[in-house]
């Protein structure tokens, strides 16, 4: 009888050990084994500022990243992640263990967002681009851009605030705030406007903001970079002799007619500080956000005696340059004839 009781007791112990081992194996597999099981190679998890552990778990379950919310919650509590949720944009790879997932989220190992901005005409265009790519709303960015106190601290005005931003591709954390974005752009602006570029601008009698303003006009005038330094030279010649810039893109900007191909004589009557037919010198600020290469085209403008230029009649995007108004008229009539033949009257 004693032997039978001993045998039963041994079986019970072995059964408990087996259950314990099975439970340990299950927990190990749940925590350390592959836990992310969606079909795609990876997915992106966005955790908004102010989110709690419940919201994070709901998002992970909704995206199919985890099957066992209870296991994730248990692990998050044991690793003290539940109390220190960090917002951001996180890349989640298929096959990650729950342990690796929680470690990544707890450490705040975000994946940066690449933002490219170019061909921007207005600050609200930039704000819209940022609002689509980063966490803050576009109105938050625009409000920060237009803050008068901030503009004054940067030595800028509403008309020149756009010169702070040098078009390029940048990496940001998804949680980047408008203040952080502006501080980053200030550093990029200072890096671009190094001592060499500032000296070149000064030698031309221009501030960096004025050089950017002229670059914006050159950028609007041509898609051919080979013509850009020569066009810049034309405008610098006009500034030097006190001749109005007479830049058609500034009229389009003043009239809000960015897409028109032809400027009419009546357009030249518009009452605007951006009308460079009626006002001497540069307009108050850029008419777009000039790219660095067009700023460099101004700083390295070609030295010549041309005072006029006109788009070529073949509509290739290149320009014909003239020293005299008479020769300019010849080129201008050819171009107008080409537009008429194609039915382009505006």
Features of this protein?
3 domains, mainly alpha, two-stranded antiparallel ribbon, 346 residues, 49% helix, 6 strands, Dna Ligase, domain 1, 14 helices, elongated, single chain
Helix content range: 40-55%
Largest sheet features? 2 strands, antiparallel
Integer-rounded radius of gyration: 32 Å
Distance between the termini: 110 Å
Structural class assignment: mainly alpha
> Tell me, what's the shape?
elongated
Number of strands: 6
On the 0 to 100 scale, the average pLDDT is 90
Could you name the ranges where pLDDT drops below 50 across 5 or more consecutive residues?
A: 11-30
> How do the SSEs run, as a string of H and E?
HEHHEHEHHHEHHHHHHEEH
Number of helices: 14
Number of domains: 3
Beta-strand share of residues: 5-15%
Q: What is the topology, as strand order, of the major beta sheet?
A: 1-2
Give an account of the 3D structure.
With 346 residues, the protein is mainly α. It has 3 domains: 33-111, Dna Ligase, domain 1 (2-Layer Sandwich); 113-192, no CATH class; 195-341, no CATH class. It contains 14 helices and 6 strands. The protein has helices spanning 2-31, 53-62, 69-78, 98-107, 123-133, 138-145, 148-153, 178-192, 195-203, 208-221, 228-241, 248-255, 292-299, 325-341, and strands spanning 42-47, 88-93, 113-117, 168-172, 308-311, 319-322. The strands form 3 sheets. It has a two-stranded antiparallel sheet with strand order 1-2. α5 runs antiparallel to α6 and α11 crosses α13.
């Amino acid at each position: 009888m004693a032997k039978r009781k001993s045998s039963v007791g041994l079986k019970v112990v072995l059964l408990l050990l087996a259950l314990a081992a099975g439970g340990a194996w299950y927990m190990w597999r749940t925590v350390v084994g592959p836990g992310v099981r969606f079909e795609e190679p990876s997915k992106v998890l966005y955790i908004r500022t102010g989110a709690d552990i419940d919201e994070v778990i709901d998002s992970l379950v909704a995206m199919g990243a985890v099957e066992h919310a209870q296991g994730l919650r248990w692990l998050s509590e044991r690793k003290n992640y539940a109390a220190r949720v960090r917002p951001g944009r996180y890349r989640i790879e298929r096959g990650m263990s729950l342990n690796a997932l929680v470690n990544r989220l707890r450490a705040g190992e975000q994946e940066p967002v690449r933002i490219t901005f170019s061909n921007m005409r207005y600050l609200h265009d930039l704000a819209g681009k940022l609002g689509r790519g980063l966490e803050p709303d576009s109105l938050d960015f625009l409000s920060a851009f237009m803050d008068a106190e901030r503009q004054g601290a940067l030595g800028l005005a509403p008309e020149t605030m756009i010169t702070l931003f040098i078009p390029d591709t940048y990496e940001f954390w998804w949680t980047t705030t408008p203040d952080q974005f502006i501080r980053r752009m200030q550093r990029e602006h200072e890096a671009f406007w190094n001592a060499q570029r500032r000296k070149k601008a000064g030698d031309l009698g221009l501030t960096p903001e004025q050089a950017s303003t002229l670059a914006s006009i050159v950028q609007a005038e041509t898609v051919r970079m080979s013509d850009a330094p020569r066009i810049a030279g034309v405008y610098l010649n006009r500034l030097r002799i006190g001749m109005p810039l007479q830049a058609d893109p500034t009229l389009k900007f003043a009239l809000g007619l960015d897409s028109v191909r032809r400027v009419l004589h009546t357009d030249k009557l518009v009452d605007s500080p951006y009308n460079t037919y009626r006002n001497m010198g540069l307009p108050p600020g850029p008419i777009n956000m000039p790219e660095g290469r067009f700023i460099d085209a101004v700083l390295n403008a070609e030295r010549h005696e041309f005072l006029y230029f006109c788009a070529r009649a073949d509509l290739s995007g290149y320009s014909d340059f003239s020293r005299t108004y008479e020769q300019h008229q010849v080129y201008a009539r050819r171009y107008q004839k080409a537009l008429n033949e194609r039915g382009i009257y505006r």
